[in-house]
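Tokens for chain A. Residues wanted.
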């Protein structure tokens, strides 16, 4: 399965990063916040019948407090010219908030701290390309709004088999499902067959993952499909996608277990799907391949 397990990916800030001391990166990819694209904004109107269903706490505050971890382009990252958090997820959440007659108040946090903070009542919800899976559904509910899989990238001209990368050096973002589930399982298959293990190189920041590949310091990387596509789009002369998207799963916004906020968010995003604004937002960010037509709560595949 793809997507953040306890995290997902990130984007480079102004300078290159030394992540966990694993690799010293001597160059920078174009996968950086300095390349934040200009994306048209979709204006939506308040829907009173939906806004009236908001929990009293949110309604009185006039805002949704959203825990978010950046950077993770093109889904959520920081525009260096304004300091604002931008991206597909951000535009969609802003549209949901407008539909409900409130604003979205984005609070940055370490990815792995977002769900505990939701449980503690610090945030109303999370928005950081979370994969909705059955383990997470034990602690929070998810309002599903997108479908993403894992996809590998490699340097141009290479031909690495993601299902037989034994002995290869493969980068991942730390705490993603690519690090915790996918790569360990593939590495074990290698050693079980008497082949060399996969050398899994984990970084705190997804941009450092892409940077390592661009510089040839790893053989490939695995990340969420929209993140991989964006990295390749930013570095078309250096890297390419490697194999098809696999293990697709829903992205969801985590909310407290049993919270009445979940059904309201689900109804709001479904409204945007039905009237076409959701598709416009996905098209604007080039992530339409993962767009869905029906939002559900807790739609993990098991």
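Reply:
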């Amino acid at each position: 399965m793809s997507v953040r397990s306890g995290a997902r990916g990130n984007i480079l800030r102004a300078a290159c990063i030394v992540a966990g001391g694993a690799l010293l990166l001597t160059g920078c990819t174009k996968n950086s916040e300095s390349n934040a694209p200009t994306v048209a904004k979709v204006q939506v109107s308040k829907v009173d019948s939906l806004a009236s269903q908001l929990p009293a706490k949110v309604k009185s505050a006039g805002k949704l407090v959203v825990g978010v971890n950046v950077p993770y382009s093109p889904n959520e990252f920081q525009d260096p010219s304004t300091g604002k958090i931008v991206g597909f997820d951000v535009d969609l959440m802003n549209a949901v908030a407008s539909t409900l007659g409130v604003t979205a108040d984005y609070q940055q946090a370490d990815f792995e701290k977002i769900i505990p903070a939701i449980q503690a009542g610090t945030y109303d919800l999370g928005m950081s390309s979370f994969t909705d899976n059955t383990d997470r559904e034990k602690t929070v509910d998810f309002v599903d709004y997108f479908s993403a899989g894992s996809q590998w990238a490699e340097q141009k001209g290479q031909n690495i088999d993601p299902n037989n990368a034994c002995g290869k050096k493969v980068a991942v973002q730390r705490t993603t499902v690519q690090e915790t589930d996918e790569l360990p399982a593939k590495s074990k298959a290698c050693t079980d067959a008497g082949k060399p293990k996969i050398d899994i190189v984990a970084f705190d920041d997804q941009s450092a993952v892409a940077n390592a590949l661009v510089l040839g310091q790893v053989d490939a990387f695995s990340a969420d499909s929209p993140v991989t596509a964006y990295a390749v789009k930013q570095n078309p002369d250096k890297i390419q996608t490697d194999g098809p998207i696999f293990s697709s799963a829903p992205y969801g916004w985590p909310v407290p277990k049993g919270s009445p906020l979940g059904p309201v968010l689900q109804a709001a995003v479904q409204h945007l799907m039905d009237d076409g604004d959701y598709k416009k937002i996905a098209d604007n960010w080039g992530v339409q391949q993962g767009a869905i037509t029906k939002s559900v709560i807790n739609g993990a595949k098991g």
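Residues 5-34 have pLDDT under 50 and may be disordered. The CA atoms of residues 16 and 27 lie 7 Å apart.
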